[in-house]
Design goal:
Elements: E1 2-6, H1 10-21, H2 23-30, E2 35-40, E3 54-55, H3 58-62, E4 67-72, H4 80-89, E5 93-96, H5 99-115, E6 120-121, H6 133-139, E7 145-151, H7 154-166, H8 170-179, H9 188-191, H10 194-208, E8 218-219, H11 227-235, E9 238-249, E10 252-263, E11 275-282, E12 286-293, H12 297-313, E13 337-344, H13 348-355, E14 359-361, E15 370-373, E16 377-378, H14 379-389, E17 392-398
Parallel strand pairs: 1-2, 1-4, 2-3, 4-5, 5-6, 8-10, 10-17
Antiparallel strand pairs: 7-9, 7-11, 9-10, 11-12, 13-15, 13-16, 13-17, 14-15
The structure holds L-homoserine (HSE).
L-homoserine binds near residues 128, 154, 190 and 195.
Length: about 400
């Protein structure tokens, strides 16, 4: 079985490495040997054992009928979309780790794969090495999934863990994460929640079988979280986690990415460092949680290679994926109900006047402000009351 890898960066080189490390067991499971015939990259890799396989024109792969499976690990929507589309049109199976591509073009590429009787697989696009796409697509099909909530970004989870353990400010932790290679030089996609947003868009699309546009998902990152917020969280016995969540509300879904204050009883409370976890609640299943290495070279490559093996076993069959291009209009998250932890320079008298009964919180070493948790109310109602109170320093939703 000849395979081509498009993009020889961290994940692409990981795929080549995994195919090598576990060659024997992979051959047994796939039913035949998997060989990398081409590596598409802009660069050459002199001295690298794969240097002879490097090509610079994707059409070399398109035009080679011997290549049956193409791995896309380039990242970004273009040119990945053009290349992947051409591969599917040429009757080749594709597996990708690229969440930007899957979130933007998933429905279209799934439909094209079906038309061509090949497979478009994307297990590695959410949760790195954690199985979540295949479970949603095949193991949990007896359920109506009522909630899916995950810590799906390793970079921000590492940063929040570090802030919590060491009492550090955001900027210092970001520098540390960059030094360790957990955060990119331009960390925007991770710290602003854009990466998590694309991942929950993919999961929600799979859960509801329709196209969920990531642009429609209310997204907040962690850039405004401070060491003082962490102090309050500790005083409450809670942890601040960046959650990507979608819930069934009536016949619709509401989705959001934002930091939440989780109690120690919450299944995602103890998910620390770069680990990811995805909590799923099904109407007949009840609760399930998928936990593990959500990013990084080999864990992500493990999921890509598992797709290759699955494809090798289903060369003549299109495995149906329920994800139509019909757009799902998400329920306005203004209707979503939560409790809210608020920090304000207003006094308790004003808080009582505007919010009524509230639970007041004080944190060690913090003065000159008032911290409180509101009663349960909709986002819209909270926004109205917060505007009336004024002087709000911070608001974090309480999970
Ligand atoms: N930057 C991402 C993360 C990589 O930290 O989770 C995996 O998508």
């Amino acid at each position: 079985m000849k395979v081509a890898v498009m993009g020889y960066g961290t994940i692409g080189s990981g795929v080549v490495e995994v195919l090598d490390i576990n060659r024997n067991s992979i051959t047994k499971r796939a039913g035949e040997e998997i060989d990398v015939k081409y590596i598409l990259d802009l660069r050459d890799f002199p001295g690298d054992p794969i240097q002879e396989k490097v090509v610079h024109d994707y059409k070399t792969i398109v035009d080679d009928p011997e290549v049956k499976i193409v791995v896309e690990t380039m990242g970004g929507v273009e040119p990945a979309y053009t290349f992947v589309k051409a591969m599917l049109e040429a009757g080749k199976h594709v597996t990708t780790s690229n969440k930007a591509l899957v979130a933007a073009k998933g429905a279209e590429l799934i439909a094209l794969a079906k038309e061509k009787n090949v497979n478009f697989m994307f297990e590695a696009s959410v949760g790195g090495g954690i199985p979540i796409i295949r479970p949603l697509n095949s193991c949990l099909t007896a359920d109506e999934i009522e909630e899916i909530t995950g810590i799906v970004n390793g970079t921000t989870n590492y940063m929040l863990t570090k802030m919590s353990e060491e009492g550090l400010e955001f900027d210092d932790v970001l520098k540390d994460a960059q030094a360790k290679g957990y955060a990119e030089k331009d960390p925007t996609a991770d710290i602003e929640g854009y990466d998590a947003c694309r991942k929950i868009a993919i999961l929600t699309s799979l859960v509801c079988g329709q196209q969920v546009d990531f642009e429609d998902i209310h997204t907040e990152g962690i850039t405004k979280i401070t060491a003082t917020d962490i102090r309050y969280a500790k005083a409450m016995g809670r942890a601040i986690k960046l959650l990507a969540s979608s819930r069934k509300v009536g016949d619709g879904y509401v989705a959001m990415v934002a930091p939440f204050l989780l109690p120690s009883s919450h299944p995602l409370y103890s998910v620390n460092d770069v680990f990811n976890a995805i909590f799923v609640h099904g109407n007949v299943l009840g609760d399930a949680m998928f936990y593990g290495s959500g990013a990084g070279k080999l864990p992500t490559a493990s999921a890509v290679v598992a797709d290759i093996v699955d494809i090798a076993k289903h060369q003549e069959v299109n495995i149906a994926v329920e994800w139509s291009s019909k757009k799902l209009e998400l329920v306005d998250c203004g209707n979503m109900e939560n409790r809210y932890f608020v920090r304000t320079t207003a006094d308790q008298k004003d808080v009582r006047r505007v919010f009524g009964e509230a639970e007041y919180v004080s944190a060690e070493g913090v003065s000159g402000e008032c911290g409180f948790i509101t009663a349960r109310m909709s986002e819209a109602e909270y926004q109205k009351k917060a505007a009336e109170l004024g002087n709000v320093i911070q608001m974090i939703r309480v999970g």
